[in-house]
Amino acid sequence: GAGVSQTPSNKVTEKGKYVELRCDPISGHTALYWYRQSLGQGPEFLIYFQGTGAADDSGLPNDRFFAVRPEGSVSTLKIQRTERGDSAVYLCASSPSQNTEAFFGQGTRLTVV
Amino acid sequence: QKEVEQNSGPLSVPEGAIASLNCTYSDRGSQSFFWYRQYSGKSPELIMSIYSNGDKEDGRFTAQLNKASQYVSLLIRDSQPSDSATYLCAVNPFFNKFYFGSGTKLNVKP
Fold first, then answer.
1. What percent of chain B has pLDDT over 70?
2. Cβ contacts (< 8 Å) between A48 and chain B: which residues?
3. How far is B106 from chain A (nearest CA, A)?
4. Average pLDDT over chain B, rounded to whole?
């Protein structure tokens, strides 16, 4: 595909459950970002990967959140023991390298009930 | 102080007018700046990037950067109803993450 692909588009889960959100970046893009966006707000930084390593995870709100990118391409954001406050749109973006333009996927809308 | 500040709007302009959107940022060492457009219920779409002081034009869009004043703006000429969206300013100060403003909602009235 030409763009960043995120799955699922929507996820409804019960409080306390575990969820995984997947991001497939643009082919060849080494930088990958996860953001979270709540209604009426701008995207909030969660984590940045350069290749396989998490270069900056300072935005992860707590230890329930974890992300991996084992082969330097697809990334998975994992949320344990979900809480209602985790409900938001989770956005993934990729760019050819750091400090260049980033392109977003369509997002995953997570609803915790 | 937030890293990126934008007026939330809404900014209303008539069709055909120039829309002017503004953004200030706090980190003086920032090197790259971006404008994204976001339609309701959709993800952000990159429309402009700017890296050096001055103006950069792309079709009806002009981005302006003034690093001394820590100020970025976006001008939309000949505004169309299809330009109605939220415009997000993004700044990359540390080469590893983008900080976004909360966005300015633009309404272009036919």
1. 99
2. 96-97
3. 13
4. 94
Q: What is the dihedral of CA B8, B9, B14, B20, to 10 degrees?
A: -50
* Per-residue tokens: B39: 């339609």
B-chain residues near A107 (CB < 8 A): 43
Give mean pLDDT, residues A31-42.
95
Q: Which two tokens stand for residue A34?
A: 């996860």
Q: Parallel, antiparallel, or unpaired for β A65-68 and A53-56?
A: unpaired
Round to whole Å and give the CA distance between B12 and B105: 9
CB-based contact B37:B44 (threshold 8 Å)? yes
Higher-confidence residue of B38 and A96: namely B38
Nearest CA in chain A to B96: A98
CB pairs under 8 A between A and B: 58
Q: Which residue in chain B is spatially nearest to A43 when comparing CA positions?
A: B100
Question: How far apart are the C-alpha atoms of B44 and A69, rounded to whole Å?
Answer: 23
* Contact predicate A3/A101, CB 8 Å: no
pLDDT cut 90: percent of chain B above it:
85
β-pairing, A19-24 vs A75-79, is antiparallel
Mean pLDDT value across residues B19-42: 95
